[in-house]
Every structure is written in structure tokens, then in C-alpha cells.
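Repro:
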Amino acid sequence: MGRMRIAITGSTGLIGSALVRSLHADGHEVVRLVRRPAKTGDEVQWDPKGGYVDTAGLAGCEAVVHLAGAGVGDKRWTAAYKREIRDSRVLGTTTIAEAIASLDTPPHTLVSASGINYYGDTGNRAVDESDPPGSGFLAEVCQEWEAATAPAERAGVRTVHARSGLAVAQQGGAWGRLFPVFKAGLGGRMGNGRQYWSFIALHDHVAALRFVLDNATVSGPVNLTAPDPVTNREVTAAMGRVLRRPTFAAVPAPVLRLAVGEFADDVLGSFRVIPVKLLESGFTFAFPRIDDAIRAALR
């Protein structure tokens, strides 16, 4: 498809920076929303919580990809940080959606980040986009986060809620913390190891975002996860195989809770999420298997 002008929030994060590189490589124009005064022609200032966007900078954008939000695993979940997790997503999304809706010619598409936490702990049960929301703090945040795109949807903008799984990458996210531990031979299963992890190779995550940007028939929730979720025990074995390191250590659930607090429930929780919409729309995963995703991250 032709050259597009695309605005992106969260462009310095793990997913955002990889997406910007991918779009630039294909000759697209990227406008990055930043929370300080714009310094270059490709920057637009916004204040996610203050409700401000320099909307002149969005003029001519065919699409907006909204990825900004406070890192879920970055800090201990104090009451204040939980509020930050929620506000950074819900207020930021409201700000973007209202800015889009206010334009004389809104972009065709809004791709707004969400998470597989929407489904809550699914145990051994596989879920897809047709399943209802679950319970728990992050499930509630995801519901509010997705609802906040309403102003853009009312303005006729095709809206995709990209429910992301665990991106397999060395540069950041949960997996970015696993690699050094496993490389040191200290990796092991967490809790009983039976909880499902819905992973996705970073390459496939970016490719899936590009796919939904280009595919006008896709809207609503889209699970960005590989087709075959694996258990934490299987992740542990795969990390050991690929890195050629022992994986005898196991982190008991109480120790994990002590180390990371309430966030442990999400690490120990089971999310068996299937990307039915991507598969039915014809998306092809380059690294569908866990070993391949880990190898891709090491390249």
C-alpha cells in the first residue's frame, strides 16, 4: 500500500520503537506524540492526563497507533501506582480519542493498545475475542481502557483494541527480565508452572499491528498472541533449551509475591488466549512456536 502518515503514542517503548523502525523502513511518515514541547518536525506535543493534544500535528494522519501507558511490572503496586496504571491508560486514551474526534477530517483508523488481562485468569480454558471480560484489577483496567476509545468510534473511526500478550524480546517487557536470569543459569518455573503464558514474538507483534493498520475489515478486539500458548513450565524448558542453560531453580509462589507484590498474581495467573481474529483474517505468524520466538529475540 502507499505511503501513509501515522501518529504514534508510546513511540519510545518496546513495541513503539520497533513499530517506528518498521514503518520508517517501508517509507511511511511517522508523527510521534511526546509529553514535552516538540523539538523536531516529526514530533507533536500532548498531555495525556491534562487532555491536551496539539491537534494541528495530527492533520493528514491516516491512522493513529496509541501504545502509551505506565509499565505494569515497572514498580510495586502501591495504591498510588495502581492509580497511575489506570489513569495513564484511561485518561490518555480518552485524550487521544477526543482529539481524533475533534478533527475536521479524522484518521481512518485508531489502533489502541489493550491487554490479554482483559480475560482475567482463564486457567486451562482457552479464550478468544468472543469471550467476556474476567475479574481482577488489570481486567477492570482493560475494560475501562477499551471503553475510552468511544469518542473516536462515535466519530466513525475504525477502532482496533490490540489485546497484547507477552512480547518475547530482550530489550524490555517481562521477557527482557527473564533473559539475564536464564542466561545466568538461575531460571526456573514460577509457582507450580502450570499457568499458561500467551506469548508473541516481537517481530510478529509489530507485523500484527501493521496487518490491522492495513486491513480495513478488522475492527474491535484483536488478540496479539501466538496461536499456541504454552505453560510456564514449557517456557522454562524452552528457555533452557535455546540458551543451553540449566533450569532447576523454581520460584515458589510466596517468594514471588514477596518480591513483586500484587503483580505476582498476573505472573502466576493463567492466560490461555487464542488469536482467532488474526488467524481468520489471514495473518501468518513468522514465529508461532515458543522456541522460534526465543531464538528470534536473540538475533
